[in-house]
Design brief:
The protein is built from five helices and nine strands, in the order αβαββαββββαββα. The protein is α/β, with parallel strands linked by helices.
């Protein structure tokens, strides 16, 4: 199936704003202890194509303006924020979003860490779209681990604060298969009202790995963040 062009995606998105913002990316690949990159540039480019597809409905886009190699393999494993800050202090470029590809970030379950210096784990490069979601103001769908009620009564003050993303009970580092098998939700726990959870396991800001897209209200949050915090940055 051929994906629609960016302009078509915005038109199909009806009332979503068009921020008309392009972001340049500086790609930094940290070598491992064997001096190997651990990821192909072609793989990275493919994930950026995916990010462009998902951000097209609000007319935001990304392209790579440079790729470099960081030869200090000590930075291939980022165990804490001090090390992350040291990496950025040494290699951050101005007026772009810097993206660093490393082997390890904080805990085994973390695939990325967002910011103008965004970290991406080499084994899950597709998480770049998720991290850009964080960069532009989105929380995980499972914020609060199910305190948002299934009926949506507290959706604006609990969970991710977005009402068109259903309550999500997911807890990071839980046993595999507890919440979903493949892309089928199997968890049978209930919320405080005794209602079964029905999260959107295809939401990019979830941890189910079935990334299909963002919701309308997520797009509105990101567009607002871009217009108010990024539109005149570069």
């Amino acid at each position: 199936m051929v994906r629609p062009q960016a302009q078509d995606l915005h038109i199909q998105s009806k009332d979503l704003p068009c921020v008309n913002k392009h972001f340049n990316l500086m790609i930094h690949i940290v070598v491992d202890s064997l001096r190997k990159p651990g990821i192909d540039v072609s793989t990275i480019m493919g994930t950026i194509t995916g990010a462009n597809y998902h951000f097209a409905p609000i007319c935001a886009s990304f392209s790579v303006c440079g790729v470099d190699t960081i030869h200090n393999y000590a930075f291939d494993s980022i165990e804490d924020m001090d090390k992350r800050n040291e990496l950025l202090a040494l290699h951050q470029k101005p007026n772009v979003i810097n993206v660093y590809y490393v082997d390890y970030i904080l805990t085994p379950s973390v695939c990325g860490l967002s910011g103008l210096g965004t970290l991406i784990k080499k084994s899950c490069p597709g998480s770049i779209t998720h991290e850009f979601g964080h960069l532009f103001g989105l929380s995980h769908t499972f914020e609060g681990n199910g305190i948002e009620l299934v009926n949506g009564a507290n959706c604006d003050v609990a969970g991710d604060g977005i009402c068109d993303t259903p309550s999500d009970p997911f807890v990071p580092d839980s046993p595999p298969g507890k919440y979903a098998t493949g892309c089928e939700f199997v968890f049978t726990g209930k919320d405080a009202n005794g209602e079964y959870y029905q999260p959107d396991i295809g939401n990019i800001m979830s941890y189910y790995g079935c990334d299909c897209g963002f919701t309308r209200e997520q797009y509105l949050v990101m567009a607002n963040t871009i217009v108010n915090s990024f539109i005149n940055l570069w």
